[in-house]
Design goal:
The protein is mainly alpha-helical. The protein is built from nine helices and three strands; from the N terminus they run ααααααβααββα. The chain folds into two domains: 79 residues, Recoverin, domain 1, CATH 1.10.238.10; 66 residues. The chain has a three-stranded antiparallel sheet. A hairpin with a 5-residue loop joins strand 2 and strand 3.
Length: 154
């Protein structure tokens, strides 16, 4: 394994690697250990998407020989995901906004603090807050911190 692959492996937890390996194996339906153009086209058709040749080629454009091995797939996924902090670190950060085990936080306060520290893409923040927030009986919107942490660490 080359150095870049080992760095990539160290970015992910064992559980994340296992889930990505399962996803890789689903896409690699012929079981040859590589995701090819035909594997991607078949996956897109299975999802009900058009298997546009240009889209498939673009997906493989970063891969040498236009195929993805599992280490190359992990590398690509790490670029797509960015480096995620450890779930424990996220929980500790959310505790600054919450005093309960469910890590319920005031959505407006959390949003403002994240914008104050320079969150680069407010649209992404809005999507996350919408997905993991709920309106309480009091009318206050709360961010479900523990639910968020569990979803990103699965």
């Amino acid at each position: 394994m080359n150095k870049s692959s080992s760095v990539t492996f160290s970015q992910f937890t064992q559980e994340q690697i296992k889930k990505m390996q399962e996803a890789f194996q689903l896409i690699d339906d012929d079981g040859d250990g590589m995701i090819s153009e035909s594997n991607l086209a078949k996956m897109l058709r299975g999802l009900g998407k058009p298997d546009n040749k240009e889209d498939v080629e673009q997906m493989l454009s970063l891969a040498p020989d236009e195929t993805l091995t599992f280490p190359a797939y992990l590398s690509l996924m790490s670029e797509c995901m960015g480096e995620m902090p450890d779930p424990t670190e996220i929980r500790e950060a959310l505790k600054a906004f919450s005093d309960n085990e469910e890590l319920l936080c005031d959505s407006a306060e959390l949003e403002q603090c994240l914008k104050d520290v320079g969150l680069e893409d407010p649209a992404k923040l809005d999507r996350v807050l919408a997905h993991f927030s709920a309106k309480q009986v009091s009318g206050r919107r709360v961010f479900k911190g523990e639910k968020f942490v569990q979803s990103i660490s699965e």
